[in-house]
Specification:
The protein is of the alpha/beta class and 454 residues long. The chain has helices at 27-34, 84-96, 106-113, 119-130, 134-144, 147-171, 179-205, 207-210, 224-232, 275-290, 306-315, 336-342, 362-373, 385-399, 409-414, 416-434, 440-448, and strands spanning 6-9, 17-23, 45-51, 54-64, 75-81, 100-101, 212-218, 250-256, 259-265, 293-299, 321-326, 351-353. Helix 6 (147-171) runs antiparallel to helix 16, helix 7 (179-205) packs antiparallel against helix 14 (385-399) and helix 14 runs antiparallel to helix 16 (416-434). The chain is flat. The protein starts with 5 loop residues before the first strand and ends in a 6-residue tail after the last helix.
C-alpha cells in the first residue's frame, strides 16, 4: 500500500455542506496542523480550519484510526461549508501540508488492498452510487454486504475439499481415503449446479444494471405514442389523430416497478409505398427483434383486424410479448379473448386494457411488464457481467471433466491429474470475482470507473 496521504471531496460541489475525505499515515498529523478542535477517534468535534492566522472556515471534523476505517488506514473527514471558495481553500491547504488529490476510486481501492472489501464488494460501491431504481439499489446493497462473495466462497470450499483429497490421493496413494473418488462425481456435480444457478440468475438479473429495451409495436394510430407517454410520465412522443405520425424510433427511460426500462415507440407496422415510412417500419421490425419485451398495441376502439394481429404475432413469435388494448375509455370493440386465441394455443398472449386518457390499466400493465422482465420472487445474486463471465468460465472448466463418461473409481484415478487441473482452473476463474487472483490491469480499470472521493 502506498505511503501517500490522499484527499478529495466526497460530496458534489455546490451544496450547503461539503465533506472532504483524507486517508493515509499523515492524515491525523495534517489535521493537527490545520484544525483547532481537539479531535478524538470516531467523534465529531467543532473547530476552525486555519492557514496560520488566516481563517479558512468554521467546521467539524472526525478522525478514524487504522484499521477501523473505510480504507483500513488512518483517516479524517472535514465537514465544511459547501461554497467553492471554502472547498478550494481547504484542498489547497491540505496540498500545502503534504497530501495529494486522490485518483478516481482510490479510497475504495485502498480498502480493497487492505482487505476491508473483496473486489465484488468494491464494485458494488459504484453500483450503489449509480443505481437508478429501487431493485437495482437492493441488488447493489446485497453485493456490498458480501452476498456474492458468500455464494462464491460456498462453491470454492466444495472444490477445494475435492481438490485437496484428490491431490493427496495422487501424492500418497497408499494412504488413499475411501471416499475420495466415490464422492467426487457428486461433489463436482453439486458445485456445477450451484454455479449454473448463479449464472442463469445473473443473466436475468443483469437488467438491473443494464436496463431492458421494451419496444411498442402496432399498426398506425393504435395508440403507441400515447402509451409511451403514459408509461414514462412524459410527452416525448407527438400524439395526433392522424395515422403515421411516428416515422423514427422515439426513446424514453422509466423505472417500472424497480426495473430500469428504455421504452421505444416505433413506426406503425403496415404495408406502405412511402419510402420514408417503409424505412421506419423496417427499423421497427429490427428494434422488436432486439428487444427484451415487445408490447403489441391494438386499438380497442376499433374492430380487430385479424391480418394486422397475425402480422404482429408472426413478427414476435420468438419474443416475450404482451398485448395492450389501448383506448379502453372508448366503447369496447375488441375482445381480449379473441386476441388471445388468435395468438396461438401454444403461446396464448396476455392482454391488458389501458386508457392513456384516464390511466386505467396502467398499474396492471406495469406489473405484467416487470414480471415478464424479472419476476419479483427471484432474489438477485449476480448482476455484474464480469462476475457472470467468470462463473461461466468456472462452469466450462468443470464441464471439461465430463464425469458421467468415466467408468468408475479406477477411471477417475487414472485421470486424476487432468481432473485436478480442471478444478484448479475453475477455482482460478472464481477467484477473479473476489479479487484474489485478478490481473492488476483489470483491477485498475475497475477503480478508474469510480468518482473522485470514493
Amino acid at each position: 500500500m502506498t505511503d501517500d496521504t490522499i484527499f478529495a471531496p466526497a460530496t458534489p460541489l455546490g451544496g450547503a455542506l461539503a465533506v472532504i475525505r483524507i486517508s493515509g499515515s499523515e492524515s491525523h498529523s495534517i489535521i493537527g496542523r490545520i484544525f483547532t478542535g481537539r479531535v478524538r477517534p470516531r467523534m465529531m468535534v467543532h473547530g476552525r480550519i486555519r492557514r496560520g492566522d488566516l481563517l479558512i472556515d468554521d467546521a467539524m471534523c472526525a478522525i478514524f484510526r487504522a484499521p477501523k476505517s473505510y480504507t483500513g488506514e488512518d483517516m479524517a473527514e472535514l465537514y465544511v461549508h459547501g461554497s467553492s471558495a471554502v472547498v478550494d481553500g481547504v484542498m489547497h491547504l491540505l496540498a500545502e501540508n503534504g497530501a495529494r488529490l486522490a485518483e478516481p476510486g482510490e479510497f475504495t481501492k485502498r480498502a480493497f488492498i487492505a482487505g476491508k472489501l473483496d473486489l465484488s464488494q468494491a464494485e458494488a460501491v459504484m453500483d450503489v452510487i449509480n443505481a437508478s431504481t429501487s431493485r437495482a439499489l437492493n441488488a447493489a446493497l446485497g453485493q456490498l454486504e458480501g452476498s456474492v462473495g458468500r455464494d462464491i466462497a460456498s462453491v470454492e470450499n466444495m472444490l477445494l475439499n475435492a481438490l485437496s483429497g484428490l491431490e493427496a490421493a495422487i501424492d500418497y496413494p497408499e494412504e488413499l481415503e475411501e471416499d475420495v473418488y466415490s464422492d467426487l462425481p457428486h461433489t463436482l456435480s453439486q458445485a456445477y449446479s450451484m454455479l449454473s444457478r448463479l449464472y442463469e440468475n445473473g443473466m436475468r438479473q443483469r437488467i438491473l444494471r443494464e436496463g431492458a429495451d421494451v419496444v411498442i409495436a402496432g399498426k398506425p394510430n393504435a395508440g403507441k405514442s400515447s402509451l409511451l407517454n403514459l408509461l414514462t410520465s412524459s410527452d416525448k412522443a407527438i400524439v395526433t389523430p392522424y395515422a403515421g405520425t411516428t416515422r423514427d424510433i422515439i426513446e424514453e427511460r422509466a423505472s417500472i416497478n424497480g426495473i430500469p426500462v428504455l421504452f421505444k415507440d416505433t413506426a406503425g407496422i403496415h404495408t406502405s409505398d412511402d419510402p420514408v415510412e417503409r424505412l421506419g417500419i423496417e427499423r421497427a421490425r429490427l428494434a422488436a427483434e432486439r428487444a427484451a419485451l415487445v408490447l403489441l398495441a391494438f386499438d380497442g376502439g376499433a374492430p380487430l383486424d385479424t391480418d394486422d394481429a397475425k402480422r404482429l404475432f408472426n413478427m414476435t413469435e420468438e419474443k416475450k410479448r404482451l398485448a395492450v388494448i389501448c383506448k379502453s375509455d372508448l366503447p369496447a370493440m375488441l375482445d381480449a379473448d379473441m386476441l388471445c386465441k388468435l395468438s396461438g394455443e401454444s403461446r396464448p398472449i396476455k392482454a391488458v386494457y389501458v386508457s392513456s386518457i384516464t390511466g386505467d390499466g396502467l398499474e396492471e400493465l406495469k406489473k405484467l411488464i416487470a414480471n415478464e422482465l424479472l419476476p419479483e420472487d427471484e432474489n438477485p445474486m449476480l448482476t455484474n457481467m464480469r462476475h457472470i463471465n467468470a462463473v461461466k468460465e468456472a462452469m466450462d472448466a468443470l464441464d471439461a471433466i465430463s464425469l458421467p463418461d468415466f467408468g468408475g473409481e479406477a477411471a477417475l484415478a487414472a485421470d486424476a491429474d487432468c481432473i485436478s487441473t480442471d478444478i484448479r482452473n475453475a477455482l482460478h476463474s472464481l477467484a477473479k470475482i473476489t479479487g484474489r487472483e485478478t490481473d492488476e490491469t483489470v483491477t485498475d480499470m475497475i477503480f478508474e470507473r469510480f468518482c473522485v472521493g470514493k
